[in-house]
């Protein structure tokens, strides 16, 4: 074998490098010593710390916990507190400890339990906005959705939290079986009618109806559309619950934040990896294990004066050692907020 042949067979070619970079990322390939000097120059710089400390609060949604299968609500709140979270966002269900079945006394007891533990209820969330969407093709489902939202508003008041997450409607819900698509204009009309019905109750209870951007629901695709929707109610009690991950397949959260501005009253932090091209609820990742430009997102939030909760939303508690996810997430948020150096 000649020296020239040996070099051709042992050197990694440009095409092979591109394949490796697509699969593992340019930075990973560069760290293995495989990239040429000109390839290494294109690898992103790894930042080791936040530029400064940011004044925002750490929160986590209850879906990240093995609740209620393994842990009680009390255990979840205690572990979140021990992990360093300021608040927990809890989910309203059809039945169970915090649900449509709960009495005022039972909901007030949850507030007391959280206060005794020393952790806040950062907001109220619910999956029920999908089977009982405000825009659903079945009138009885729409009516049930509005009724459940009214219960959530009342529950938030009892819990002492100002934040109620609202999914305004859906043209389509890809994770729901047999979901009948709704025409765009009909979805918009039904969504606005439902939220309009909720506004007086929210004003009376002193809570916020925070409209969440979903994107995969085929509705409110852009920050401009979200602004127009929220502002149409002309009420300070209709605001925005901004989700960073829901738009990441095609857009960038740091671009939404300046446009939504002061309307943002609560936030879901969901990690997304743009190297993943298929959307489903399994594509979201743990914080920092993706391609979200978190320094840019947090700086954008700081620029609009946001100082409230950053809530990690994740649907898959770890099968083994579920505590690890809670502590890892808290640690990641500490790095992002400049609390660690």
Short recap of the structure:
This protein is α/β, with parallel strands linked by helices and 341 residues long. The chain contains twelve helices and eight strands. The protein has an eight-stranded parallel sheet.
What does this structure look like?
The protein is α/β, with parallel strands linked by helices. The chain has two domains: 3-40, no CATH class; 57-336, TIM Barrel (Alpha-Beta Barrel), CATH 3.20.20.150. It has helices spanning 3-10, 14-24, 26-31, 37-40, 73-83, 104-117, 139-159, 184-205, 223-231, 253-260, 294-303, 323-336, and strands at 57-61, 87-91, 120-125, 163-166, 208-212, 238-243, 264-269, 309-312. It has an eight-stranded parallel β-sheet. The chain is globular. Residues 2-10 have low confidence and may be disordered.
| Topology as a string of helices (H) and strands (E) | HHHHEHEHEHEHEHEHEHEH
The portion of residues forming beta strands comes to: 5-15%
Low-confidence stretches: 2-10
CATH superfamily placement of the largest domain? Divalent-metal-dependent TIM barrel enzymes
What do we call the CATH topology of the largest domain? TIM Barrel
Number of domains: 2
Rg of Cα set: 22 Å
Main β-sheet, spatial strand arrangement: 3-2-1-8-7-6-5-4
Query: How many helical elements?
Result: 12
Q: What is the overall shape? A: globular
Q: Give a quick account of the main beta sheet: strands, pairing sense, barrel closure.
A: 8 strands, parallel
CATH class of the largest domain: Alpha Beta
CATH architecture term of the largest domain: Alpha-Beta Barrel
Q: State mean pLDDT (0 to 100 scale).
A: 90
Structural class: alpha/beta
